[in-house]
Specification:
Length: 412
Amino acid sequence: MSVTKAIVPIGGLGTRLYPLTVETSKAMIRFMNKFLIDFIMVSLISQGVEELYLGVSGYFNYKALHDHLGGGFKVRLAPGVSRLVRIRYQPNEDSLGNAHSVKILAEYYKIREPVLVVQGDTVAGINIKKFYRRHREAEAFMSIALKEIDSVEELRRFGVAAVDESMMIKGFVEKPKRPEEAPSKLVNTGVYILSREMIDFLLSEDFEAMIKEGKADFGAHVIPRIIGEGRRVAGYFMESFWFDIGTPESYLEASLYLLRNLEPERLEVSMSYRGVKFQGSSPASKALQVDIIERAATKKLILEGDILIGRHVRIGDGVKIANSIIDNYTIIGGGSRIEESVIMDRSHVAGGVHIENSIVGRHVKIMSGSKIIGSSIGDDVVVEENVELVGCKVWPHRRVKRGLKCSYENIM
């Protein structure tokens, strides 16, 4: 037995992910050579979720998602295995926080059963059945998936849980500044199971009063309130991966971790060569894959570590690619070097380009001799010859002039 309904709040402008989300919903950025929302949906649907409710806020979030998914979406779970899932959207009501978004959806669609909540910028290896079993056995009003974080610096970014010996949550310390202020190493992942009674609370006059006071966020307002009232809030220890991909840095970290650790089926891999995983099964894609493998075997190009190569990708001789993700329809010119990076779809990297520890957006053109280090490039950018960007962010549609040298700046 498990939950069959999931709510995914996708509010806000995604400003922390700029320049990747300047004009794109964060749920619709490219991730592992597909859209982020598709990646999240496959994880949920493969575990029995049958209905998805998207807490979209604002025009761009709604339009991009609806145009992509419609009211029902056929999700490919594995080769030859797909499922049609029902998708519903938040009506055109402004929400002040993720809890308010859940309230609107529960009220509008008359949801009166336990529901899973996963934030729209969360990528997690959550076992939904185990999570729900923990929720039921604890007779919890609400259950929260917790992830252990060893890094003191990382702990400062999250709400850290105080738990008792039975993993019931007694409270949170938000963004502790010093290690001694953290009651544990367990942080709130933003993945929740809400009981029927919890949903009733969100539909109550008490919560309506909180909304009027601007207190409509789970982490900041709702969870402290229900714990303060003595409600049972259960912690669930998440053993697998979890990433809040709200920044370019965490996006890149999550991408490279999953590249190393996800099984080939989850990445829709059609062919593998050592650590290189290819996507695409059409005759044209297969021919390009075989050509890349043959030239790698004869040292005409170098492929090192874990690499994901999408459909219809062309790679020139003398190229070195290491621990990177190359999306569909990308061209990489001879003699270029790409390491620890993500290149999104339909980008064109000319010859002699060096890209390292960077994210290159969609439909980007980078001309010969340029160097991109630790930078994020928005969609539809043109980088002219012999440019050097170190720690920079380039907004969509910009043209970076020939020979420019930029360090730790925003090009807007």
